[in-house]
Write a structure and sequence with these properties.
CATH topology: Spore Coat Polysaccharide Biosynthesis Protein SpsA, Chain A
Structural class: alpha/beta
Strand order of the largest sheet: 3-2-1-4
Shape: globular
Order of helices and strands: EHEHEHE
Number of helices: 3
Number of strands: 4
């Protein structure tokens, strides 16, 4: 897949539905940046039910399954490979504590 020289992709990796609220806040944050991303890629680490949930509730993001070995590095590599942008940023779902404030 060729990459565009312009624009930025934000890649968010997730693996558990237990952090659903964190994931949705990360996606909303990616959408609401002062300089919006040209592409949001959510990589789900070997959790088919979570992947289906993201695909259903966030049709505007590219939600894909980790194609590599289980774990964060495999998920990040999958996100880079799937992105159509030359530049990529990673966002973590661990930015929010249980109270909902950034940590």
């Amino acid at each position: 897949m060729s990459k565009s020289n312009s624009g930025v992709a934000i890649i968010i990796c997730a693996y558990t539905a237990e952090r659903w609220n964190h994931l949705t806040k990360a996606i909303e944050s990616a959408r609401n940046q002062s300089q919006p991303a040209d592409e949001i890629v959510v990589v789900i680490d070997h959790n088919p039910a979570l992947l289906e949930r993201v695909q259903t509730q966030f049709a505007d993001v590219k939600a894909i399954e980790n194609a590599e070995e289980k774990g964060l590095s495999g998920a990040r590599n999958t996100g880079i490979a799937a992105s159509r942008r030359w530049w990529a940023l990673w966002m973590t779902t661990r930015l929010w504590s249980k109270t909902g404030s950034k940590t």
